[in-house]
């Protein structure tokens, strides 16, 4: 007997037939003698529709009201799944965030879970009742308002609930059958990964792999929740996200990811003086523009410096505005922007003990005539910025170079 | 300065443009210096969709889960209206049933409001904040579950809130501009009624006029809440529902209504003995079949009796099953059913002091050759059951006979 949390995303609960399919999976776990909590997203498309309504209502809106609106889709799914489960003789009840409660801070729109009071749930789960929990939402106890956890927040709901329940496992059911060495739509020889470390999964999620929300992986890592990613629609063991010690044979590189969500800004001939970087990036940070990769070169004239950095495409316009508005604080000759870039990353905890991983990346790309614009590295990751038109070629070349291709 | 409750139904909040129109009306009341609470329904069609989902999920469902599902539409509207109001500089916040809370009993699907804790609302309304309240829903405090008040329940939410807030007025905005002497789609010469008594409005609502939920009128009458029915889409003073004393010139008959929601059951040659009526209607009541009109005649053979009564069409099948199942408790020769009937009622508090009102009805119908099948009367109402094909003819004839036609 185990205590498990199962999470189903929007495509897995898109209509009543799919909700019945979910109920099959839940009923099977109950029949196997497990204590089960289920976390559900809104039916596919519902949250987007509600977000759209909020945008139509006002250009700038009160995030407390936005949360009250967009959280409603999950309540519907939780109630419907409970009805379907009861209909096949499985005891179940739905729980909204405020009913448990799932306590969060007051950062509406992207709130952080602070505590989940699970006593009631544990008692009822032990008595054989499935807890069907509305994902994505929480409750801010001071003003007694509903909060939401940000897009993809149901993953975080599930992992946080698993941590609070001290669950043996958190199964994330989605529309793919696991985490892959690379996007299989681009690299046909990509392989499903059986086991991956928290650290790698975190880098994969933050470097463009869309299978899990980054914050949910952070939380799983912090609380050592064993997470499994698997498909709602086909049988399989999926991918297990676990501690490094639990992986016997560790590949040097576990996966190759990409993100098209980048835009490059270059400031030419910035007058070089101490504090110029702070002068540039301070105002951007204040305007909540996230700067990712940064590179600073000496200019041809040796007196000034060229500064290149990347922001998300959504932030590009705002970033340019902020820079223009602060031109009195730092001098530069010209600003150029480039949206036709992609960030490609290779990720693997094996890098820590293997030299030459970055070198292999540079060689593989050079061999195909792909110019590297910016490089950043971390302990278990190397990322490069290249022209977007080379995306597919770069991914396939790197996937082969690191020996990841399926036989 | 007054304290008012404004209620907007589903067609009044069907999309963002209409929600903006609602915000105009609310903003105008705030600008006039009033303290305002607004009760909103779900966007038109949403509740039907959610009810449909519940029906698809299971044939018989847990009403607690049904309530969790179908209550969500109102939360969306309340949030969106708050955003739109804030966008035009009007302070506003949304309130879900559990947040206020609106305390109800545990009769899920058709719960009764027991108490509304309005201290917080009153304080904020006095500070100029509009309270935007999700209609149709409440909170059952023992199990901490969401309840709903039954279809059309937002009217009841509004009146109950007006009573709890000791509001000066409860304005029910709908898609018609008031209460009419008869359905204007059938009787072209129907007139809008300027003032109507609670008692008449209650009979109108329960005898088929769909403009207000019956229970909301009962509650308005009990707490003496002045209710006004008016249009969201055109200017006008609407219809005021008030105490009898506030109406100076009272017509004998105020309105003519009809209900197609009737079905007639006749049991022939029932063995007549004391207690036979109880034997028939007891089991029906136990099966929650509401019996409306009843008439009992001596049969041709003088030894037995014929029993005719009406139930709603939705209950007909169940009523027939119950009667067949209890045939051992009372004997009869034959049962016949008739769905092609309509109940036509004339309503007016003036009847109390005027004789001959019923007689005028019988004459007017006889003159057109319309046969009356069943008659029931109350202090301020006469209802007859006739063949459905005569509906329009009967309504127009009665409307003219009682002098209600517009000039």
Describe this structure in words.
The structure is a homodimer of 407-residue chains. With 407 residues, the first copy, chain A, is α/β, with parallel strands linked by helices. Chain A has 2 domains: 3-175, Carbamate kinase, CATH 3.40.1160.10; 245-407, VC0802-like, CATH 3.30.2130. Helix content of chain A is 34%, strand content 27%. Chain A is built from 12 helices and 20 strands. Chain A has helices spanning 16-31, 46-57, 63-70, 72-87, 119-126, 153-164, 198-206, 214-223, 276-286, 313-325, 357-367, 391-401, and strands at residues 3-8, 35-40, 92-95, 102-104, 113-116, 130-134, 137-140, 145-148, 169-174, 195-197, 227-231, 239-242, 255-259, 262-271, 291-298, 304-312, 334-338, 341-347, 374-378, 381-387. An 8-stranded mixed β-sheet of chain A has the order 3-6-2-1-9-11-12-10, with helices on both faces. In chain A, helix 7 (198-206) packs antiparallel against helix 8. Chain A is globular and about 75 Å long. The first copy, chain A, starts with a strand and ends in a 6-residue tail after the last helix. The A-B interface holds A 16, 19, 50, 53-54, 56-62, 64-66, 68-69, 71-73, 75-76, 78-80, 82-84, 86-87, 93-94, 96, 98-99, 144-146 and B 16, 19, 50, 53-54, 56-62, 64-66, 68-69, 71-73, 75-76, 78-80, 82-84, 86-87, 93-94, 96, 98-99, 144-146.
Give the key terms.
VC0802-like, alpha/beta, about 25% strand, nucleotide-binding (chains A, B), amino-acid biosynthesis (chains A, B), about 400 residues, homodimer, ACT-like_dom_sf (chains A, B), Carbamate kinase
